[in-house]
């Protein structure tokens, strides 16, 4: 089992840059004590802190997280095998190679892409991956040769295909490919004639900005999107789809503000999103945006964790649990598997920060049960599992086994 964890990489990079612990801590506005815990592997840094540390150390976040992960687990799944083909497809997006046979009808391609999109939301990356190159190639040829509404519809479905590619690349840790895919989503969305698809493309770009720590640029883009969706509705009467997309943008803004240390502003954005969710009254997935009352609560907890208030995050789960006559709040059925597993991964890190090792391991196990591949490839899973192993004085086989499965 590798002992080279995220904290070790931060320590090595800090020494290369010739920063003392205090100098680096000051650069990212955290305490020396917290940085020491991170470097020793006793504390899992939030995604926002990873982005800030990466900027301070003049590297990309992937240098800190160690992505992409190449080890036995990924080789066994052969999920990496599609990456070179996807690179070729994205490179030749407007000048594709010839197809061996004519592309299938758009209706058939749309149905298959709809299935791929659902697989993406369910975190089924391994079966989804091999479907993408051929499907993208066919849709590209249809989009470039069709006319009128068929052309716009082809680009609309192609944008969804590029979004699935972005998600796959991001989850596997190929961030350069992910960024290229986001640009391709923009390219196809601009040709789809659908303003909400264009908003979706910009939303994905803002997400990449947040991951890179470009908070000012991301904030400007997201705030513009909130206003843009509002302008689409006559007399300020948003449709359900528009509400869902605007609400998802507000939640992304809340996470940005939390990671940027603007806790009060994050709370304001969550309040705005809560109002929008109240109008929907149920959880929706319009434009593959998970939005509704449940997702607002998921983001409320995530924002607290990203802001470093893990104690309040765990307390909020207990508070909501009262409504369900449970010890803690549990996600309702029907939430997208990727979103649900992400929630439990976040909560696991929060529990570890609060000293609840058993609870942290339990949440990781729940995340694995919901979406195994998403859980295994998530950086926070690996960091948290590695910390649990280092802190486990009884050498619990179940914890060690989970860590091996996660590729630690």
Describe this structure as you would to a colleague.
- This protein is mainly alpha-helical and 408 residues long.
- Among the domains are: 1-77, 434 Repressor (Amino-terminal Domain); 336-408, no CATH class.
- Helix content is 71%, strand content 0%.
- It contains 23 helices and no strands.
- It has helices at 6-16, 21-27, 32-40, 47-56, 61-65, 72-77, 83-91, 106-121, 125-128, 132-145, 148-172, 175-190, 195-211, 215-232, 240-259, 263-280, 293-306, 310-321, 337-353, 357-370, 372-377, 379-391, 397-405.
- α15 (240-259) packs parallel to α17 (293-306), α17 (293-306) packs antiparallel against α18 and α19 packs antiparallel against α20 (357-370).
- It is globular and about 65 Å long.
List the helices and strands and how they pair.
Layout: H1 6-16, H2 21-27, H3 32-40, H4 47-56, H5 61-65, H6 72-77, H7 83-91, H8 106-121, H9 125-128, H10 132-145, H11 148-172, H12 175-190, H13 195-211, H14 215-232, H15 240-259, H16 263-280, H17 293-306, H18 310-321, H19 337-353, H20 357-370, H21 372-377, H22 379-391, H23 397-405
Write out the CATH superfamily name of one domain. Answer: lambda repressor-like DNA-binding domains
CATH topology of one domain: 434 Repressor (Amino-terminal Domain)
Order of helices and strands: HHHHHHHHHHHHHHHHHHHHHHH
CATH class of one domain reads: Mainly Alpha
**CATH architecture heading of one domain:** Orthogonal Bundle
Biggest sheet descriptor: none
Task: Kindly name the structural category.
Answer: mainly alpha
Average of per-residue pLDDT values: 90
Cα radius of gyration in angstroms: 21 Å
Which regions contain 5 or more consecutive residues with pLDDT less than 50?
Answer: 72-76
Shape estimate: globular
H/I helix tally: 23
């Amino acid at each position: 089992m590798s002992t080279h964890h995220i904290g070790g990489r931060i320590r090595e990079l800090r020494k290369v840059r010739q920063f003392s612990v205090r100098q680096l801590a000051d650069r990212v506005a955290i305490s020396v004590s917290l940085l020491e815990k991170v470097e020793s592997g006793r504390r899992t840094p939030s995604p926002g802190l990873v982005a800030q540390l990466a900027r301070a150390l003049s590297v990309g976040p992937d240098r800190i997280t160690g992505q992409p992960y190449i080890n036995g687990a990924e080789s066994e799944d052969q999920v990496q095998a599609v990456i070179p083909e996807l690179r070729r497809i994205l490179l030749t997006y407007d000048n594709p190679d010839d197809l061996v046979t004519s592309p299938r009808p758009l209706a058939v391609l749309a149905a298959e892409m709809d299935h791929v999109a659902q697989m993406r939301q369910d975190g089924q990356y391994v079966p989804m991956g091999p479907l993408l190159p051929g499907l993208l190639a066919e849709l590209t040829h249809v989009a470039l040769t069709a006319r009128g509404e068929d052309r716009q519809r082809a680009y609309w479905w192609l944008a969804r295909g590029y979004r699935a590619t972005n998600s796959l690349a991001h989850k596997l840790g190929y961030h350069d490919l992910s960024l290229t895919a986001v640009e391709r989503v923009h390219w196809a969305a601009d040709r789809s004639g659908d303003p909400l698809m264009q908003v979706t493309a910009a939303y994905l770009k803002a997400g990449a900005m947040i991951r890179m720590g470009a908070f000012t640029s991301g904030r400007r883009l997201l705030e513009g999107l909130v206003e843009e969706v509002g302008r689409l509705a006559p007399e300020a009467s948003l449709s359900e789809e528009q509400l869902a997309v605007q609400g998802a943008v507000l939640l992304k803004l809340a996470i940005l503000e939390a990671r940027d240390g603007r806790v009060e502003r994050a709370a304001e954005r969550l309040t705005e999103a809560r109002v929008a969710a109240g109008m929907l009254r149920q959880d929706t997935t319009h434009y593959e945006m998970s939005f509704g009352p449940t997702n607002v609560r998921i983001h409320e907890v995530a924002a607290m964790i990203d802001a470093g208030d893990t104690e309040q995050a765990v307390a909020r789960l207990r508070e909501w649990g009262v409504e369900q006559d449970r010890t803690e709040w549990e996600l309702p059925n029907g939430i997208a598997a990727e979103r649900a597993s992400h929630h439990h991964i976040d909560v696991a890190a929060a529990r570890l920060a609060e000293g609840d090792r058993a609870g942290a391991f339990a949440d990781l196990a729940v995340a694995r049960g919901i979406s195994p591949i998403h859980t295994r490839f998530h950086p926070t899973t690996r960091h948290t599992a590695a910390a649990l192993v280092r802190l486990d004085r009884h050498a619990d086989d179940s914890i060690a086994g989970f860590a091996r499965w996660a590729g630690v």
